[in-house]
Amino acid sequence: MQTRRHFLQQAALATGAMLKSNSLMAEIQADAAAKKLTILHTNDVHSRLDPFPMDGGRNQGLGGVAARADLIKKIRKEEKNILLLDAGDIFQGTPYFNLYKGEPEMKAMAIMGYDAATMGNHDFDAGLENFATQLQHGKFELLLCNYDMTGTPMEGKYQPYKIVKKGKLKIGITGVGIELNGLVPESLYGNTKYLDPVQNANTIASKLKKEEGCDMVICLSHLGYKYKENKLSDIEFAKQSEHIDLILGGHTHTFLDAPETYKNKVGSDVLVNQVGFAGIILGRLDFEFGKMSAKNLEKAHSVVVRQKTNE
User: Fold this and answer.
1) Is residue 11 part of a domain?
2) For residue 271, what is the domain's CATH number?
3) Contact at 8 Å (CB) between 244 and 205?
4) Range of the domain at 57
5) Residue 4: left if φ>0, alpha if ψ -120 to 50, beta else—which one?
6) How many helical (H) and strand (E) elements, i.e. helices and strands, does the chain have?
7) Buried (b) or exposed (e) across 53-85, using 16+ Cβ within 10 A?
8) 61 occurs within a structural domain
9) What 8-state DSSP symbol labels residue 267?
10) pLDDT for 78-118, tens place per residue?
11) Given phi > 0 = left and psi -120 to 50 = alpha, else beta, which region is 190?
12) How many domains does the chain have?
């Protein structure tokens, strides 16, 4: 017959084992959460601070920074490790830019907590001195590895790459811009020198992967998704790349339902995504990382940004 002392000893052992098991499970769950990453991204917002008017057009009620900010706030409550990125053409397209030259756009991005962005061709529309002035309101890192802006008002205002730590993950981010000659008046880009985006991005990506030990390398690109003519696009860029895992594009206003996969020059997968224009869509990519930094895209979302109704 079991004595009371023996019963208490057994109960204590069982309780200890259960607590240890619960603690182990909590540790496993915490470790898994630390190896998850949610990437939110936009491109070609073009000063669209308000949603499209309710005028019967196909985009009526879509977009607007208030609705986007609400979505981002909701996702931040649900997920721990979030990156918020933009692939350029922040400026130009509504009277807000004509009046305020980009200040409200930058302040809105600061409020939403953007981590990094690159420049699009329309971000030059009021000149480099203006962009440098407005950038101070953005509070995000401007990333460009293929423009040399030495001797311009943008000197020292941008970086070739950024490393961000999210949980147990180390993420490297760089950015590439489009050829400005013939697209932007020389008076607006001044002494900016255009450098080979493939060569420069590959050099940075190699540094981020091999020297810095990044689990993932992201490139913000304003090259454009695809062209009929012989012009460097994100698709060709992906095929010629090395050590880049994800290209988040802009410029061509392409709505992709899901990221597309291409093989880089050594046969590894590169994901390419773009989410249209005017902030109509908030791109969302959820990744899980396993052993040896293996990453899997668990889910891709095209989240429609829509103003709330009073129904």
Assistant:
1) no
2) 3.60.21.10
3) yes
4) 34-304
5) alpha
6) 8, 14
7) eeeeeeeebbbbbebbbebbeebeeeeebbbbb
8) yes
9) S
10) 999 999 999 999 999 999 999 999 999 999 999 999 999 99
11) left
12) 1
